[in-house]
Design a protein that fits this description.
six-stranded parallel beta sheet; alpha/beta; 6 helices; 186 residues; globular; Rossmann fold
Length: 186
């Protein structure tokens, strides 16, 4: 589908330890739906430099992390095997919360004429929120797949979906999004 890309965000092994049961199958379903419809998939991962030389100690999220986490050598920073890239799917590394931080994601999207981002990822209060808000401010259309996003706090997840993210874009289940792809293809 021209103009749309699925962002599969922070699906790293260590992050999947903090999600509710049933999350992984929904995230896999979102990837399979995108692939079957010909929607480009872009994987976004947190990747910090060795010794975290790119993290300021004042940063509340990353400043206190042990220096080996989320580096190239951290096995738990790998994308979960069930959600791993296939074929020529792009992997973009970021060094802060938003998928746009410290990389050329905007350039990649522009080169592919992408103007609609479909978001999945961990955590709803982290990368999903930051990316959705920034994407909306950059004039992308945004769809958040509610069942393919997760947060350690179910209440925060629900509040963000129903009171914040739905004001910046669309919120749909993976099934609803897949049905809309099927309807627009016929």
């Amino acid at each position: 589908m021209s103009g749309t890309a699925l962002l599969s965000m922070d699906h790293q092994v260590s992050n999947l330890a903090h999600v509710p049961d049933g999350y992984l199958p929904a995230a896999v379903r979102a990837l399979e739906t995108a692939r079957a419809a010909g929607v480009p998939v872009i994987h976004v991962v947190l990747r910090l430099r060795p010794g975290h030389v790119d993290v300021h100690p004042r940063n509340k999220i990353f400043g206190g992390l042990p220096s080996g986490l989320f580096t190239e050598d951290d096995p738990n920073a790998a994308i979960h095997p069930d959600l791993a890239p296939r074929g020529d799917e792009i992997v973009v590394a970021k060094n802060r919360v938003s998928a746009f931080a410290g990389n050329n994601l905007r350039q990649i999207l522009a080169a592919q004429d992408i103007d609609h981002l479909v978001l999945t990822g961990i955590a709803t209060s982290g990368i999903v929120l930051s990316t959705a808000l920034q994407a909306a401010d950059l004039d992308y259309r945004v769809t958040v797949l509610s069942d393919a996003c997760a947060d350690p706090s179910p209440d925060v997840h629900d509040t963000l979906l129903t009171k914040v993210l739905n004001r910046r874009g669309d919120v749909a289940t993976t099934k609803e999004w897949g049905d809309s792809l099927t309807a627009s293809a016929s």
